[in-house]
Amino acid sequence: MTSTLLVCLSFSSGMPILYFVAFLFYTITYLINKVMLFTYYQKTTVLNRVVPNFSVKQFKIAVLLHMLFGLFMLTNPSIFETNDEYDHTLDKHLAELNGTAIYPRI
User: Fold this and answer.
1) What is the pLDDT of residues 56-71, one digit of tens each?
2) Residue 105, domain member (yes or no)
3) Residues in Cβ contact with 17 at an 8 Å cutoff, skipping those fewer than 6 apart
4) Number of domains comprising the chain
């Protein structure tokens, strides 16, 4: 489950469909675990804090990876191509309304 979280958070900036995929995965996992808990599982005798502490550390790593991958994907010029030519149509209309030029006319 942690690996699914890491993958979805890492690549979801470039592929937002992964949020929906993660939602489906965790919903199905929740329902299956609920059924298994009430029908097959037994009460544990040993419960410690290792698993929750490990999960918190993984969430911190997941947030960091999400930010780094998002930064890479959203600033990569080959993914989002920019047009070097700027359309000054709106600027011309605003200049006519205000009587001033926002950008020098070319």
Assistant:
1) 888 888 888 888 888 8
2) no
3) none
4) 1
Q: Are 68 and 12 in contact (CB under 8 A)?
A: no
**Is 56 among the domain residues?**
yes
d(CA 5, CA 53): 16
Residue 14 CB neighbours (<10 A): 14
For residue 77, the enclosing domain spans: 2-98
DSSP string, 38-81: HHT----S---SHHHHHHHHHHHHHHHHHHHHHHHHHH-TTTS-
The reply to whether the predicted model has a pTM over 0.85 is no
Helix/strand/coil for 17: helix
